[in-house]
Write a structure and sequence with these properties.
Number of strands: 24
Strand content: 35-45%
Number of helices: 1
Radius of gyration: 23 Å
Structural class: mainly beta
Helix content: under 10%
Largest sheet: 8 strands, antiparallel
Shape: elongated
CATH topology of the largest domain: Jelly Rolls
Mean pLDDT: 92
CATH architecture of the largest domain: Sandwich
Amino acid sequence: MALSTIPFSGLGADASNQGVNFRNLIINGDMSIAQRGTSTSGITGNGYHTIDRMDTVCSLGTWTQSQSTDVPTGQGFANSLKMDCTTANASPSAANTIRVRTILEGQNLQSLKKGTSNAESITLSFWVKSNKTGTYIAEPFDTDNSRHIGQAYTINSANTWEKKTLTFAGDTTGTINNDNGGSFEVTFWLGSGSQFTSGTLQTSWGSQTNANRAVGQVNLGDTVGNNWYITGVQLEVGTSASDFEFLPYDVNYQRCLRYYRQMTPNSPTQTDFANYGWVATESSVVCVSLPLHPSMRSTPSATMTASASIDDHYRASRTQSSAHVSINGTANGNSVVMLFNNFSGMSVGNVGQFNTVNTFKLKLDSEL
């Protein structure tokens, strides 16, 4: 019998909180996985900086983002995402914004029945803390159909963890694509200019109107030292919030590897590729075929942090004159063929392995 068909009553009183049915649509909502590092300072632009699956959109102020161990007491969390303002902007221009979002694949959202008469309500719950009290906006956004809905929540007490629960009606307009593309966002606004605040908050589903997206939002970036923490982010079908669905660390990590992974030639982990050989395809190029377990969402991009050295079984060690890697092919995200350029003096057909003293990181990125 499949686990999904076993009633929770038959699994014990706490079975509904043991990851049996993956009811949380958010990946890494407990902020436990941070492959890129635990802290990044000087943030003034968009991108994934620390916590996996948490994207930052930034044109307002300068920020440090970190994986913090400050968490609500007694709730089972070990980490939170922290935003800390290091350069303030108390008078943002119209288009300035600072927000944190997570982006979801359409094929994981078909249970929402969006765009049909049976569209399901969704409930967003999370723990939040800030030194700046006031009104903040959370916004589900259907990117396939440019539709959005928002709700305000209030941080009532400074420097105090508070749990928030927001329920959003189902949307009978605009079906979500059943594919691996980014179809849906959950955005937490932290500040913005008038382009996003000059209208009326969109509290029912409607076509995208920027002026209605963050109405009433405080400007967390108005003072150096302002901070905002979040953890326990859960999005689920229905009109009420259940306890946070904790997954085992390894399961959470594997889910994050679908979107991003860092690999080194000397790491004793599953992301070690020192044992994979190379073959020279030109005098300056070596080719590596790398299986990806688990598979990635789509063909990733590849970058390196430093030059690589290789051991040539026929002659000697060789080092790239400058770091360079490119993707030459893929098999539905299950494997990838990479070309490492900028070597010299090899003959086509030479083979070998990466030198295990390498300190570079190979980054494969398939983020939404």
